[in-house]
Amino acid sequence: MKINTQDFYAGVLFIVVGIAFAIGATNYNIGVAANMGPGYFPLVLGTILAVIGTIITFKSIITKVKYPVGPIAWRPLIFIITANIAFGLSITSGGLISGIYALTFIAAFAGDNFKFKEIFILATILSVSSYFVFIKLIKLQLEMWPAFIVG
Amino acid sequence: MDLFTNLALGFGVAFTPINLGYAFVGCFLGTLIGVLPGIGPTAAIAMLLPITYSLLPIPALIMLAGIYYGSQYGGSTTAILVNLPGEASSVVTVLDGYQMARIGRAGPALAAAAIGSFFAGCVGTLVLAALALPLTKLAFEFGPAEYFSIMVLGLVSAVILSSGSLLKSFGMIIVGLLLGLIGTDINSGVVRFSFGVTELTDGIGFVALTMGIFGYGEIISNLGKHEKEHEIFKGNVEGLLPTPQDIKSMTPAILRGTTLGVILGILPGVGSVIAAFMAYSVEKKIKLQPGEVPLGKGNIRGVAGPESANNAAAQTAFIPTLALGIPGSSSMALMIGAMMIHNIQPGPQVMTSNPELFWGLIASMWIGNLMLVILNLPMIGIWIKLLTVPYRYLFPAIVLFCAIGVYSVNNNVWDIWMVALFGVIGYVFVKLQAETAPLLLGFILGPMMEENLRRALLISRGDWSVFVTSELSAGILAVAVVLLIGVLLPSLKRKLIPK
After folding, report:
1. What is the pTM of this model?
2. Chain B, window 457-496: residues with a beta carbon less than 8 angstroms from a chain A beta carbon
3. Residue range B464-477: average pLDDT?
4. Cβ–Cβ below 8 Å for B416 and A84
């Protein structure tokens, strides 16, 4: 079967999101047009979105052109997101320095060739410059060093 | 002369050494981030926002204006040198700019972009200053129905200028509006769609949303491409100065582009993309001089025209933003968000309640434009060096700046989790070719739209005809309908968007 997969999934996504918001909206007071409750606007929008999604999905099935979604870049997707999460986990107790090293090393795996020495140098450069720019220069409320060192 | 006393007030505010310093730093950093491949102006502004948090409102806005222009210009530089448009508005710059760079004329192309942008910026600032006062007066006539209608117009225009499917962009707007509703409802105090998460009572942070969708989504899809698809600039830029022949052919193009841009920028939502596209089609229609290369093959007019148009439009796009508090583009939406972080509620009252800030901002826009020319022409070497750095060193740094930036908004790790979530969502949108700019616009407009819709219908006692019985509102909606019909007619769309 020839379908436009890009549009097919986009349509399905809109339907799901639209219905989810519309159903969620019924938990709140809907009210009437003259006196709208908190549920009114999301209910209307969710319904419209679901309708748009249905039209897109339908059109994607009957269309003759075909746009594949294409391969998913799992490697960058996983490593970039993990790097970000690792930064969040380490920054509160380990300070900015541990966050930078964790993020840089994990993020580097998203690329094609990983060289330990290069990444180590990069992380060090980023740490030094972050220290001067973010902490010394614009004085963000960040701890550079882990809590057990600062005390 | 009101205009000149006002401008004098503005320049008095902006021309203090410290504010000039902030404008300079803003332009510098904006260009620096804007030049990075794969980072458009919207993501650049989001990344740099945290830097302004600790500043007072006036210097913060001055710096933001600098960042805004810097990132726009940085995007054009990347477009010309490595064939990579950072934002939709520099898509046409790529056509002739990159061709010029390939035949060793990157210097004049960059100069044409800078000079054209500067001239357009000057004209745009004057128009902005002249129209701000009457438009603000008009804005005071606006009731909730008019506000709602003008937001509809803004969203319709945002759909129109998206390059992809109209329906999908329309869907993305609604997704944005819905995401904007998450959090506490101002009217009833009810917390909506928060799943019991305390952090969500204030809604989704717009910095986290923008960085996730515009920053991470793009980085991931860039990395998904093969190494050889990342073009790295290897050539040399020799001789920045345009030849007398260049100046002769680019001057009329700059004038035409500026005129188009100034007019189109004022319409909410139309903004710089359409302006750049139209300027390019105009240049394409003009008869070639003997010995001139055709457009698309490296003609300087193809750079000068669209670049002037998009900068003029970027400037006059501040008119709806400042006069009504309604953003016309995704970067404008960020500027509004930034103003709100500094406790400035954009809208007609800013000019009367805080004239120093209003006119200071306008003056600093002009200074920002001047700064760009001074900064970029001599410093172009630095930006070129930056473009020769392999992407594998750049992207961890970009991810790091995003993470630090978003964390420093509230010093709360929650925002980092949100960026991760929106990064995944952003990548999904890239894969589905669903445009993200309309989503951001919808996200910022969501609460305002609901608020005005509610008030309009409360006043009219539930009568929906209120949107067409008021002349002003009906007129605005008519423009929206005309625009929509215009785009649905394929012949016109083909005219607007040159292939």
Report:
1. 0.83
2. 457-458, 460-462, 464
3. 88
4. yes
